[in-house]
Amino acid sequence: MNHSKNRKWRIYADKNVEKNTISLLRKKMDVLSVEEDIKLTNQEDSFHYKKAKQLKRLLLTNDKDFWSDQQFKLLESPGVIILISKDKVIAQYLPLLLRKALIVNNPSDNPIFLDGVKIKCSPEEIILKWLNQDSQKAETQKFRWNDLGFKL
Predict the structure, then answer these.
(1) Of 149, 109, 103, nearest in space to 126 by CA
(2) Cβ burial, residue 102 (10 Å; 0-12/13-18/19+)
(3) Is residue 3 assigned to a domain?
(4) Given 13, 28, 33, 74, which residue has the most CB atoms within 10 angstroms?
């Protein structure tokens, strides 16, 4: 199985994501930065949430408000990655973290989108949140970075 080796993750980087992080991620990912498009810069968070989904891109942000399912419905999530820290090491491991998520969530060669998934990354842990298809309730799972083979 190919597991999408030749496909790049498509990222929609919110305006609060640091330029250094964007530069680092562009080496391995297709990153659209809100800061680089004047039409996007002054838009509200809800606009970016919808736009990322429309463009089939994961929303990358430092804004913890996106974790709220009341404000940003999990079912409507384009796939959100919240970087709690501006630590470049976390950004460096992001492509590998997503590849692990890809293999766990999609063992086929079909394209994967993390619609309906939110990921919160802090220096201590990674929290994944998704909607259980049977119960339609949010579920979460926490991992420590070293549990996944990463050394921060």
Answers:
(1) 149
(2) middle
(3) no
(4) 13
Q: Work out how many domains the chain is built from and give that number.
A: 1
**Residue 2 domain flag:** no
Q: 3-class secondary structure for 2-23?
A: CCCCCCCCEEEECCCCCHHHHH
Closest CA to 145 of 103, 89, 66, 68: 89
**Does 50 map to a domain?**
yes
CA distances from 47 to 51, 72, 125 (A): 6, 11, 28
Residue 96 inside a domain? The answer is: yes
Two tokens, residue 59: 């929303």
pLDDT digit string (tens) for 88-135? 778 888 877 777 765 555 555 555 567 889 999 988 888 989 888 888
**pLDDT beyond 70 at 55:** yes
Query: How much of the chain, in percent, has pLDDT values that exceed 90?
Result: 51
- Which residues 6+ apart lie within 8 Å of 146 measured at CB? 152
Domain that holds residue 21: 10-148
